Amino acid sequence: MTPFRRLLSYVLRYPGKFLRGLACVIVTTGVSLVAPRILGLAIDDLTKGVTAGKLALYGTLLLGVAVVGGVFRFLMRRVLTGVSRDIEYDMRNDFFAHLQTLPLSYFQTHTHRRPDVARDKRSQCRADDDRAGGDVRVEHRAGVRRCSPD
Questions:
Q1: Dihedral sign (CA 78, 21, 19, 133)
Q2: Which has the closest alpha carbon to 140: 90, 79, 68, 70?
Q3: How far apart are CA 150 and CA 109, in angstroms?
Q4: CA distances from 11 to 6, 70, 79, 129, 139 (A)
Q5: Is 1 within a domain?
Q6: Is the pLDDT of residue 3 over 60?
Q7: What is the pLDDT of residue 25?
Q8: 47-72: per-residue pLDDT in tens?
Q9: Domain range spanning residue 124?
Q10: Quick one: which of 30, 89, 96, 118 has the most CB atoms within 10 Å?
Q11: 9 occurs within a structural domain
C-alpha cells in the first residue's frame, strides 16, 4: 500500500469534519470577495455625493464582513487542525497496536542485545510520527493560506 493510500484511509474516517472544514473555507473565501465589492460601491457613491448615513452603512457592512470572515476563518482552522490531530492520534494507536502484535523474539533480535534500543526504536517512530503530523498540519495550513486572503 502506498503512503498516500494509507493516509487516505485515515482521512476517510472523518468525512463530516472535512466537509465542515471545506464549507468554512468556501464561506471564508466568499466573504473575503464581498468586501472589495462593498468598498467599490462606497467609492462609486463618493463621486455621486454621499451622505453621512451611507458612509455609516458602508462602514457597518465592512465591519460585519470582517467579523463574519474572522469567525469562519477561526472555525475553518479549528476544524481542520482538529481533524489532523485526530488522524495523528489514530495513526499512533494503530502503530502501537501493531507493536503489540509482534512476538517477543522480534524485539530480542532487533535490539542488538541492548534493552534501550527497543525504546530508541519506539522513540524514533514517535519522532517520525510527530514530524509527519506536523507536516500534515503545515501542509494543511499552507493549503488554507493559498485559499484564503491571510
A1: negative
A2: 79
A3: 52
A4: 9, 26, 13, 16, 14
A5: no
A6: yes
A7: 94
A8: 888 788 888 999 999 999 999 999 99
A9: 15-147
A10: 118
A11: no
Contact 146, 78 (CB under 8 A): no
Q: Under DSSP, is residue 113 helix (H, G, I), strand (E, B) or coil?
A: coil
Q: Is 20 domain-assigned? A: yes
Q: Angle formed by the axes of helices 52-101 and 3-11, to 10°?
A: 120
Domain count, the chain: 1
> Per-residue pLDDT tens for 115-146?
555 556 566 666 666 666 655 555 555 444 44
Q: What are the CA-CA distances from residue 81 to residues 35, 61, 137, 149 (Å)?
A: 27, 30, 7, 18
User: Does the residue 26 lie in any domain?
Assistant: yes
Cell 503489540 belongs to residue: 100
Residue 65, C-alpha cell as written in the block: 464582513
pTM for the full predicted model = 0.64
- Given a contact cutoff of 8 angstroms between Cβ atoms, the answer to whether 29 and 147 are in contact is yes
